[in-house]
Amino acid sequence: MATVSEPRRLRIGVDVGGTNTDGVLLDPLGASDLTKGVLAWHKSPTTADPSEGIANVIEAILDKAAGVFGVDPARDVAGVTIGTTAFVNAVIERDDKRLDRVAVVRLCGPFSKHVTPCVDWPVDLRDLVLGCHALVRGGLQVDGELISNIDEGEIAKFCAKIKVLGIKAVVVNGVFSPIDTVERQEERAAEIIRREIPGCEVVCSKDVASLGFLERENAAILNASILRYAKKTIRSFQEPFRRLGLDCPVFITQNDGTILSGEMAAKLPIRTFSSGPTNSMRGAAFLMEDNQNQERGGDGQAMMVVDIGGTTTDVGLLLANGFPRQQAAYSELAGVRMNFSCPDIKSIGLGGGSIVREDGDNVTIGPDSVGFSIWETMVFGGNTLTATDMAMAARPDLYDLSLLREQPVASEEKLAKCREIIKQKLEKIIDTVKTSPEDLPVILVGGGAIIAPDELKGASQVVKPELAQVANAIGGAIARVSAVVDTVKSTEFESTQKLVEDISQEAIQKAVAAGALPATVKIVDIETMQLEYIENKTRFIIRAAGDCDFFRTDHTSQLGQIDLNKDQVHKDDLDSTGWSNSTVKPARRRQTPETPEIDRILTYKPDVRNRVWYISETDLSWISTGCYILGTGGGGSPYPHMVLLRELLRAGAVVRVVNPHDVDDDAAVGGGGGAGSPTVAIEKLQGDEMMQAQNELYEICENRATHMIALEIGGGNGLQGMTLGASTNMDIPCVDGDWMGRAYPTKWQTTPVVFNERSPIWSPIAVADGNGNVVMMPTASSDRQVERIMRAALSQMGSLVGCAEPPVTGAEMKRWVVEHTISQSWRIGRAVAKARLLNRVDKVVETIIEECGGSTAARLLFKGKIVGVERTLFMGHTYGELIIEGADVAETLSGAGTSNTTNQFKGRRIKIPFKNENIAAIRIPDAGAAHSTEEVKELEKQEDVLAIVPDLIAVIDAQNGEAVGTPEYRYGLLVSVLGIAASDKWTSTERGIELGGPRAFGFGHLRYEPLGTFVKPVSVIDEFDREVATDTE
């Protein structure tokens, strides 16, 4: 331990859980000792006022250390790090005493007007948190150009309303604010608000999360709502320290395993929401380090951390860089979709308190548990048989069984069955989290680790380290400091490598500014993504991390202190802000879906009257899910478009869909949709550009549309025909069909161009950016020229536009249309919804196949885990290749044991090349060899082709049944690959195969062979028309 003359170096880590508060006193210089530098540890019940529990734990560990070393260690403590669930629990519990109402100021100009703040929140939470909002001038384009400048008077006027409502928390969210380093619009708006409303809290969205307008805004609103409570809580954490003689900064652990100063955590409490699992992972890894291990954060080995509690087992992958693998782009908390960084943790209903049941020869364990009621277990004299009872009974040589009831817990046969079930469950969840077939070390932590076996398939070793029961507190004590830079830069005049170097230095400087010791800071993660349809633009996400510099002279002002004299907190204040009388809550028990919800889904019938389908919110939800699956990886996520159309429905809009065969031959069937970069689409939400393009088109096109049709059913454009046709827009019905039957990357890859009855089809055309700029093209020499010219204009119009296509006659539409694709999307979405409600997502692909015409028309091509993704950009399109390694994903996800189905995909690999959309699914005969492009083509044999365009190849998330778009492909994701036979509008002619087949994508060395026989989708209108039903009664 440090002497008086040595610098302070001891660290205290505390984890405040729902049941227990754990603490450790750690000397980093002793990390190579057998004790791992842990001088003392303590575990005690969490108190109603967590600050009391924290004080109790810290006092206990200081007393223990003083008893051992004979010296009061308090003066040698350099810092205290606390992990807590207090803030996230306030949101989950909808506590109006801890959550404040929030005003939202959007700097968006004409965009996002149809999707208001908190639009996709649970109603009770939205009503509790959202006070008011305003959409004002401001925002940037992706290239940094202004959408519009902010208007100080406009913001000041809204501040007057905020003051009248008594709201003291405000969020400012600007379009592309995370890349705004020049205009600083959010910061300038925040200054105006603080001036107009003295004493209010202002949160700039760019400080909370990155690109993704709605998700970043959601996170910022939750952050603002919890601010007051967070500040009081963190001050309460600090209050006991001076009483205990601790004159040191206080830090709070955040989601990625690093620390925030108390001051920063009080400003950004949302960054702590998922810190608990991360602390356990980091602590477990620290306990595994041997004497000669490399400095943390350097190149090491990835490892699995299995945290077994009383009710659940949480498993995560700790990467070689020392940080947990993070979730994909989006996460969800309390029903709110967000995009801030969270660890990728998989959980199953298995813990030490899991209840064991026997029904004849069948033995089950969990998912329900005795939770914190440990006195109910047999080992403590109760009557409930649990996994812990079984584990202890199986090892009488290790455990004192005197507390067990006199009768035997179970027969040897039953004990063996339980051991095997637990082993299989753990092996399957471990395999789910792994990203490669190689065995990895598995570290067992948590109070329930007693139930785990000493050997597990897929584990190079299984270790239950000493002090595993306080791994979470240890993880807090060793946490580091990190910083992330997420920005978009031009590569026109500087190379990507040079930009990576510059941004890396920026990330390092940012980490040092946050409190990292300069000599220890390293780059731990680099991600680059070229933006589609945007010339010379690349998104860079770079993370730096280093050890905390506890000895900086600016500890008090920068790192860890909040002024305790300001708004001094007393116990009465804490009670009034929402501390519950007991923080210990019963464990949540898994429940089957409520019968009314199942019945509603299983018995739901769409509203079809007189051959017109009136779209409901249920219909829309299912159609949206189906559209993304039919998008074959492209088309962009339908989510923001679904939210927009749902809001129209809630506002009273009527959306009608008609059968294409019911349309008169002389009708005028118009079209429209969006074009541009998916990256821009998630940030610059739709304004009026779609309708503006339509209005401009009919200034030069005399034949106004009487009906609308989607350009493509795949992705977000699959909903545009219904949105444009809504009664609040053009008020015309949408045709149940589209021009692709899927998604394709270009406008000339459409069935009207395939039929080639006249050319060009797609002029005149109008393109609008929603910000006052319109491009008209009255004539064109060909449809390919329309595409080229529109793409050129796109880059100068914000990289996201609305297009209006000229109408075709009803007779032409009936010859060219891919029929009933809205119906097909609806049926696919219904299949996914049913699978989720009945907990049969493992069979969702098989259900979708039945909806698409059965096994002759669609096929399960592959199941497995993504183990490789490569991307590049050419002529505005994203090209790449996906590698999937075979696995029985149903067995892997369930963790229930060996599947009865044959593991037909194990040991095999396939690749899926894509150009925005998936092109083919091809077996890989030699997975290990590296080859040039030409050699790869030589190796791609016709007999290895499982499916190829124009047939549809969809990658589906095996955990939720949703489509996975090409921008969302990532390592480790469990997926199923679905093949669907393309419409005969593509496959019945050589021209169709030429425009939509392999040669159009540069795969001329492979030929199209249909995977099955196309079956026309069944019309929802034909099936559910009430007029038909009435006539037959």
Automatic annotation (TrEMBL):
Domain S-Me-THD N-terminal positions: 618-778
Span of domain Hydantoinase A/oxoprolinase: 216-391
Membrane-spanning parts: none
Domain S-Me-THD-like C-terminal, chain residue ranges per copy: 782-1011
A GO molecular-function descriptor: hydrolase activity
Domain Hydantoinase/oxoprolinase N-terminal stretches: 11-196
Family annotation (Gene3D superfamilies): 3.30.420.40, CV3147-like, CV3147-like domain
SUPFAM superfamilies named in the record: Actin-like ATPase domain, CV3147-like
Entry-linked PANTHER family: 5-OXOPROLINASE RELATED, HYDANTOINASE_OXOPROLINASE
Record's protein name: Hydantoinase
